[in-house]
Specification:
Layout lengths: L4 H4 L3 H22 L1 H9 L21 H6 L13 E7 L7 E6 H17 L7 E4 L7 H13 L2 E3 L6 H10 L4 E4 L1 H14 L10 E5 L5 H11 L2 E7 L6 E6 L6 E3 L4 E6 L13 E7 L10 E7 L1 E2 L11 E2 L4 E2 L4 E3 L2 E3 L1 H9 L4 E12 L2 E10 L1 H8 L2 H19 L4 E5 L14 E3 L5
Parallel strand pairs: 3-4, 3-5, 5-6, 6-7, 18-21, 19-20
Antiparallel strand pairs: 1-2, 7-8, 8-9, 9-14, 10-11, 11-12, 12-15, 13-14, 16-17, 18-19
Helix pairs in contact: 2-3, 5-6, 8-9, 10-12
The protein binds 5'-O-[hydroxy(phenylacetyl)phosphoryl]adenosine.
5'-O-[hydroxy(phenylacetyl)phosphoryl]adenosine binds next to α6, β7 and β12.
Length: 436
């Protein structure tokens, strides 16, 4: 099913024309309302009338997270305060958080795009949808909430926390859909198992998972433990929130809401645009936003874009899975390591549960990597409480990690349930080097 046939299946030429018109308008709007952009454009000798087609996007300046921090809190806001009806803030581990203001029209566009996502996942007015992303400054909770309501399905605003109560509600209210982080979905499955609630006792059939990287193996695991079909949803607060792109029934990449968010891939070093099919840093320009529009915002997410009509009928550009982030890439003894590489090795071993932690340290001026991973309950029950099978698993895992990462990692296999669980985004890395 398609929510907005006109936009989601628009012929490519027509879409590019629409994007070009919208780009001109947004550049003009920023030029007249945001001194930061006016200064940048003037320095580059660009006037709004120079931007006449979407191809002109390459002439425009990039925007970085640092620009948002430097202009904290309202420096990049284009709409007057009286027009803003909501604020969200992105979680920043360092420095100021990013404050994003939305006008009434922005919230409407957001709900529209969220309804596109949910419809692509097969959600209808007959569904009861539990929104278990955090409600609050994070965009996950309220963002999905408004989309469910806009579509006409019923929303159960469970948010995070009190997972046992959540399980009881899923069972008693015959909840059919759920939105949460993939790691929370696994935590929910664990809680259900502890409570003796099997997947046959609940009615979940569709899951909207995102806000953090996840893999095909995690998808299989969540689907089999919760008895649903899991779909990817991607987004970021600076651009809107959840809804920037979404999978369809083909699950062959995530369709970008391109009439609102124009995607590009650039080389993160040279910032040169890269063609479809080549991985690089994902960059977005908001084409219709009023509150805080951004030109060529560098997401720091690494991925690949694909064009071509999808078998589902949508014509929009698709994003591959997020391969990593330019800023969560660890450099360990000079070698680039992405947590997602470690995850894929761990998930390829049947004995390992999808719960792991990378601990990076510096001992005698030498970087060390320790990978802690939990063993699955069923293996633990079969003798993993003795040392020998644990040592064997540690050796096997270390050898596999060495062949994939080209560095030696120390592996520590842990008992089930011992690594800390997160209800929001998971923390996969502790880098003790930063503290020294
Ligand atoms: O995480 C918005 C969101 C909420 C998306 C709920 C999906 C569902 P931020 O907190 O600003 O916004 O974090 C954005 O999270 O740049 C990615 O690195 C990561 N991310 C989001 N969705 C995915 C995904 C929300 N599906 C940052 N796969 C982004 C991988 C994701 N990473």
């Amino acid at each position: 099913m398609i929510w907005n046939n006109n936009k989601e299946c628009m012929p490519r030429e027509q879409m590019r024309e629409l994007q070009g018109k919208r780009l001109h308008k947004i550049v003009d709007y920023l030029y007249h309302n945001v001194p930061f952009y006016r200064d940048k454009l003037q320095q580059m000798d660009i006037k709004p009338e120079d931007i006449t087609s979407i191809d002109d996007i390459v002439k425009l300046p990039f925007t970085t997270k640092q620009d948002l921090r430097d202009n904290y809190p309202f420096g990049l806001q284009a709409a007057p305060q009286s027009e803003v009806i909501r604020f969200h803030a992105s979680s920043g581990t360092t420095g100021n958080p990013t404050i994003v203001g939305y006008t009434r029209k922005d919230v409407g566009v957001w709900s529209e795009c969220m309804s596109r996502c949910l419809t692509a996942f097969g959600v209808t007015r007959d569904d009861l949808f539990s929104v278990a992303y955090g409600y609050g400054l994070f965009t996950g909770g309220l963002g999905v909430h408004y989309g469910v309501e806009n579509l006409g399905a019923a929303v159960l605003p469970t948010s995070t926390g009190n997972t046992e109560k959540h399980v009881r509600l899923l069972r008693d209210l015959h909840v059919t859909g759920i939105a949460c982080t993939p790691s929370y979905a696994l935590y929910l499955a664990e809680t259900m198992e502890k409570m003796g609630v099997t997947k046959d006792m609940i009615n979940l059939r569709v899951g909207a998972f995102g806000a953090e990287p996840w893999t095909e193996n995690m998808r299989k695991e969540i689907e089999s433990r919760l008895g649903l079909k899991g779909y990817n949803i991607y987004g970021l607060s600076e651009i809107m929130g959840p809804c920037v792109s979404y999978e369809c029934s083909e699950q062959n990449g995530s369709h970008v809401c391109e009439d609102h968010f124009f995607p590009e891939i650039v080389d993160p070093e040279t910032l040169e645009p890269l063609p479809y099919g080549q991985p690089g840093e994902l960059v977005f320009t908001t084409l219709t936003k009023e509150g805080m529009p951004l030109l060529r915002y560098r997401t720091r997410d690494l991925c690949t874009l694909y064009d071509g009509t999808c078998a589902c009928g949508r014509t929009s550009v698709r994003m591959g899975r997020i391969l990593g982030r330019t800023d969560d890439m660890l450099i360990i003894r000079g070698i680039n390591v992405f947590p997602s590489q470690v995850e894929s090795v761990i998930l390829s071993m049947p004995e390992c549960a999808p719960h792991f932690l990378l601990v990076v340290d510096r001992v005698d001026n030498l970087d060390t990597l320790t990978v802690q991973v939990e063993v699955r309950q069923e293996y633990f029950a079969q003798g993993f409480d003795t040392f020998e099978p644990i040592f064997k698993l540690e050796r096997e895992l270390a050898a596999k990690l060495r062949s994939v990462l080209s560095i030696n990692a120390k592996v520590q296999v842990k008992a089930p349930g011992t690594l800390e669980r997160s209800q929001g985004k998971s923390k996969f890395v502790i880098d003790n080097r930063i503290l020294k």
